[in-house]
Amino acid sequence: MKKLCILIAISSLMACSQAPSNIQTQTAGIIPSPPTSNKMNTIYNLTVEDIDGKSFDFASLKGKRILIVNTASKCGYTPQYKELQELYEEKGGDSFTIIGFPANNFGGQEPGSESEIKSFCSANYGVTFPMMSKVSAKGKDISPIYQWLTEKSKNGVSDASVNWNFHKFIIDEEGYWVAEYPSSVSPLDPKILDFASGK
Q1: Mind listing the pLDDT tens digit for each residue in 35-88?
Q2: Gap between the Cα atoms of 137 and 148, Å rounded
Q3: How many CB atoms lie under 10 A from the CB of residue 169?
Q4: pTM of the model
Q5: Count of CB atoms within 10 A of residue 91's CB?
Q6: How many degrees, rounded to 5, is the angle at CA 78 between CA 73 and CA 82?
Q7: Is residue 128 within 8 Å of residue 96, measured between CB atoms?
Q8: 82 class by beta-carbon count within 10 Å (0-12 exposed, 13-18 middle, 19+ buried)
Q9: Is the dihedral angle over the CA atoms 58, 63, 64, 66 positive or is it negative?
Q10: CA 23 → CA 1, 13, 20, 29, 93, distances in Å?
Q11: Is residue 71 within 8 Å of residue 110, measured between CB atoms?
Q12: Helix, coil or strand: residue 164
């Protein structure tokens, strides 16, 4: 009888010592894998055309902070070209850049061709920051870049609405959407200056 009790006790101990191993094996199968990277939400997946009709890949801007603005030549905010150029001359370089997208969505205030826009910007404001080909910033024909800028499902951060010319978006050095500013906010606003400075 004593031997039987000892055998039962040993069997119980063996069963208990094996239990954690079995539980770990079962649990391991249901532990969720780490969240996937949201690289699909960076601007680096987008390619556009510059004002000369050449391909411009946003991946070429990795490591730079970016200010994107929809521009127009016949708008009350058109003098912001001067401030944008000033910002670019002061802060532009290896860590910050400005990208201009002419758009004719608001009041028909950008009717010109790419060559006319380029000449206007150069002659009147000495623009040297990168300018892209004309796009649509809203509506049924909205361009892919503005879909990304205004739709949370594409940028992973926020929905936005471009309501007029010279609306501003800022993108961090890893290609992620950071914030937007309406037309009335100057390119030399302290918030934008801090961003361009990496603060």
Answers
A1: 344 556 999 999 999 999 999 999 999 999 999 999 999 999 999 999 999 999
A2: 11
A3: 24
A4: 0.81
A5: 19
A6: 115
A7: no
A8: middle
A9: positive
A10: 33, 16, 5, 10, 57
A11: yes
A12: coil
Nearest alpha carbon to residue 181 among 157, 155, 163, 199: 163
Q: Are 108 and 72 in contact (CB under 8 A)?
A: no
Residues 6+ apart with CB under 8 A from 176: 41, 42, 43, 155, 156, 157
**Tokens coding 168:** 């501003």
Catalytic annotation, residues: 75
Contact 96, 104 (CB under 8 A): no
Residues 60, 130: contact at Cβ < 8 Å? no
Contacts of 55 (CB under 8 A, 6+ apart): 47, 48, 49
